[in-house]
Amino acid sequence: MVNRALECKAIRTFHVEQFQKAGIPDSAFEVNCILEQVTGIPWHSIREISPEQRKQINSMIQRRISGEPLQYILGEWEFYGMKCFVGKGVLIPRPDTECLIDLIAQKFRSSEKLNILDLCTGSGCIALALKKIFPDAEITGVDCSPEALAYAEKNKNYHGLDVQLLRGDVLDAAFAKNFNSVDLIVSNPPYLTSQEMQTLQTEVSHEPATALYGGSDGLDFYRNMTEIWKTPLKSGGMLLYEIGEQQAVAVSEILLSQNFQNIQVMQDLAHHDRIVSGDKI
């Protein structure tokens, strides 16, 4: 009689070795994710893998070896304790961004009826995480990509959260005139430089360039958005950006040039500069 549990263990070991040979970091973790996605069972509890599941696993393994991001292969990823559906055409949520949510949670009371804009919302992960923390807030996510907004809509419906999603160009001053009396504007805009776009990791190159490229010096969105969106922001309202780890000084200076005050820089868990915020005078 075939020992199915040992067979499953052998399958896992084989795929882990495949990933290691392909130079994939965290090989065991990634294989575990794929096994759990296909079987619906924690990897250490898997006792049998059907031929159809084996075929699906092999396909996902080959996609990963070819350089496709694990998150796209799984079709989902966790952000701030929430399942977030992702796929081709939308930026993958990253743990670094969670410190942005933490900072906002520290700055405001959960009972406040805030008016919040999430610009370049992508998958909607920031807007939805904020809605869970601030259930009374009016939150709007804006993005120019129909592909990204489709994922944002799917995530919104999955979590049953009342967030408004709009298609719009965050660099269009006329579009910004549709908003007023905003308490908080938050954004994780494209911020990679031309040079960084030329040296992307294989996995990152699968993500939409429009969600990555921020102009030759990576600062185009910060310059334009700060000027455009300060108008609908209330006096005393906060503008808060995620940044590249080398951009804290430059983005702080942009906010200062537009008469923002109380400029603050926050680091992520790896102690890299990650968030810049300022208050409108």
Describe it:
40% of the residues lie in helices and 20% in strands. The N and C termini lie far apart (76 Å). The strands form 2 sheets. The protein has a 7-stranded mixed beta sheet, sandwiched between helices. The protein folds into 2 domains: 4-66, no CATH class; 90-280, Vaccinia Virus protein VP39 (Rossmann fold, 3-Layer(aba) Sandwich), CATH 3.40.50.150. α2 (27-39) packs antiparallel against α3 (51-65) and α5 runs parallel beside α6. A hairpin with a 2-residue loop joins β1 and β2. The protein has helices at 4-21, 27-39, 51-65, 70-74, 98-107, 125-133, 146-159, 173-176, 194-198, 220-229, 248-257; strands spanning 76-79, 82-85, 115-119, 138-143, 164-167, 182-187, 233-242, 260-267, 273-280. With 281 residues, the chain is an alpha/beta fold. The longest helix is centred in the N-terminal third of the chain and has 18 residues, at 4-21.
Give the total of domains: 2
- Total helix count? 11
Helix content: 40-55%
State the oligomer.
single chain
What is the approximate shape?
A: elongated
The strand line-up of the biggest sheet is: 5-4-3-6-7-9-8
Calculate the mean pLDDT score and round it. Answer: 96
> What is the CATH top level name of the largest domain?
Alpha Beta
Number of strands: 9
Give the radius of gyration.
Answer: 21 Å
Q: What's the main sheet like?
A: 7 strands, mixed
CATH topology of the largest domain: Rossmann fold
By CATH, the architecture of the largest domain is named: 3-Layer(aba) Sandwich
From the N-terminal CA to the C-terminal CA, the straight-line distance is 76 Å
Q: Proportion of β residues?
A: 15-25%
Low-confidence parts lasting 5 or more residues at pLDDT below 50?
Answer: none
Question: What order do the SSEs take from the amino end to the carboxyl end, as H and E?
Answer: HHHHEEHEHEHEHEHHEHEE
Q: What is the CATH homologous superfamily assignment of the largest domain?
A: Vaccinia Virus protein VP39
Structural class label:
alpha/beta
